[in-house]
């Protein structure tokens, strides 16, 4: 979505351009349905969209003359989308962006790139912040109270996005630790996949609590490995950290699909197609990318240092029996 800055409270332009990949729904274009009925009948049915949200089928047209950009698409499509924006020449100097995208990519000097860094690879003049938190979409859409974290390098950028997003039921806290905010959003989906395995195996809340705690420790260790003292332990007590991890391990698509997978009989691809209605799983592919990143970093035995992350990858993609997930918890380094 591109937001023309200059009025929520007369500061931001009221029109919000939302780039929508055009699809036909029962003979009608999805963008026309959104713009006339003010409902995204495919991805958010039953939720009334404000009339100032304008669905635009052409990416470049949606971005033209915009000052603020919100990136919220599957992370697999970020490079292609940003390249199209860069090649178009329509991005204004001084434009700011914020990513809600969960995931990482392999490569770069440290062997890993955050999605914000992938964006700036293509749009180097755009300053990117990150919004991550305990924000399950349907609950946010139904205006239930929740919190979120806005990670930014410059506090003034975070304050602009806080002013844009903050409502009585969607409370935003600005955190001057963007890398940790963003990496939390990616790694928690791996842990949620493990929590879903527990549900599919018929295990209880004690086991899931262990998954959450051990997963949090692996998240913190991973962040320290790549960002050192830049990563603040206090950030894990923001909404992007422990709160998002808990809610994702009890709700959300990754937990749900992992539960079905653990019960057997279906591949991840089949479950994704049947359950997610065009959305994408994030936990399993992130677990696979983490393995590549760790090995690039010189971690020769990820199974010993990151057993939970590694078990999720091995179960999802390498034929490891899901029942062995509990073995990785029993023998976790935290217990030695």
**How many helix segments?**
15
Query: Helix/strand/pairing class, anyone?
Result: alpha/beta
Tell me the number of strands.
12
Radius of gyration of CA atoms, rounded to a whole number: 20 Å
Overall outline:
globular
What is the average per-residue confidence, as pLDDT, rounded to a whole number? Answer: 91
Largest sheet: 8 strands, mixed
Query: Order of strands across the biggest sheet?
Result: 5-2-1-6-7-10-11-12
- Terminal Cα separation, in Å? 48 Å
Strand content: 15-25%
Give the SSE string.
EEEEHEHEHEEEHEHEHEHHHHHHHHH
Helix content: 40-55%
Low-confidence stretches: 1-7
Summarize the structure in words.
The chain has 336 residues and is of the alpha/beta class. Helix content is 48%, strand content 15%. The N terminus is likely disordered.
Topology:
Blueprint: E1 2-5, E2 12-19, E3 24-25, E4 28-29, H1 30-37, E5 53-56, H2 59-63, E6 68-71, H3 78-88, E7 96-99, E8 104-106, E9 112-114, H4 115-122, E10 127-132, H5 137-141, E11 146-151, H6 155-165, E12 170-175, H7 178-200, H8 205-227, H9 239-250, H10 253-263, H11 268-275, H12 283-296, H13 302-305, H14 307-317, H15 325-330
Parallel strand pairs: 2-5, 6-7, 7-10, 11-12
Antiparallel strand pairs: 1-2, 1-6, 3-4, 8-9, 10-11
């Amino acid at each position: 979505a591109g937001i023309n800055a200059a009025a929520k409270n007369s500061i931001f332009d009221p029109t919000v351009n939302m780039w929508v990949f055009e699809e036909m729904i029962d003979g009608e274009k999805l963008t026309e349905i959104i713009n006339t009925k003010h409902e995204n009948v495919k991805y958010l049915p039953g939720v009334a969209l404000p009339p100032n949200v304008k669905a635009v089928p052409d990416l470049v047209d949606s971005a033209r003359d915009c000052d603020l950009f919100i990136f919220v698409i599957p992370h697999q499509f970020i490079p292609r989308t940003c390249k199209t924006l860069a090649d178009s020449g329509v991005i204004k100097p001084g434009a700011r962006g914020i990513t809600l995208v969960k995931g990482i990519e392999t490569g770069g000097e440290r062997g890993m790139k955050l999605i914000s860094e992938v964006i700036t690879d293509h749009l180097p003049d755009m300053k990117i912040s990150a919004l991550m938190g305990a924000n399950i979409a349907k609950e946010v859409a139904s205006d239930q109270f929740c919190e979120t974290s806005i990670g930014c390098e410059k506090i003034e950028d975070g304050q602009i996005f806080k002013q844009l997003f903050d409502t009585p039921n969607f409370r935003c806290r600005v955190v001057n630790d963007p890398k940790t905010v963003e990496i939390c959003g990616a790694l928690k989906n791996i842990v949620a996949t493990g929590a879903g395995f527990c549900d599919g195996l018929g295990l209880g809340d004690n086991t899931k609590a262990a998954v959450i705690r051990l997963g949090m420790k692996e998240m913190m260790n991973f962040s320290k490995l790549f960002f050192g003292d830049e990563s603040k332990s206090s950030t894990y007590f923001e909404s992007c950290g422990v709160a998002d991890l808990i809610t994702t391990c009890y709700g959300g698509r990754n937990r749900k699909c992992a539960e079905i997978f653990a019960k057997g009989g279906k591949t991840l691809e089949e479950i994704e197609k049947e359950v997610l209605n065009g959305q994408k799983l994030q936990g399993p592919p992130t677990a696979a990318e983490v393995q590549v990143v760790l090995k690039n970093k010189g971690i020769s035995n990820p199974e010993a240092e990151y057993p939970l992350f590694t078990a999720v990858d091995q179960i999802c993609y390498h034929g490891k029996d899901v029942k062995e997930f509990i073995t990785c918890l029993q023998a976790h380094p935290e217990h030695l």
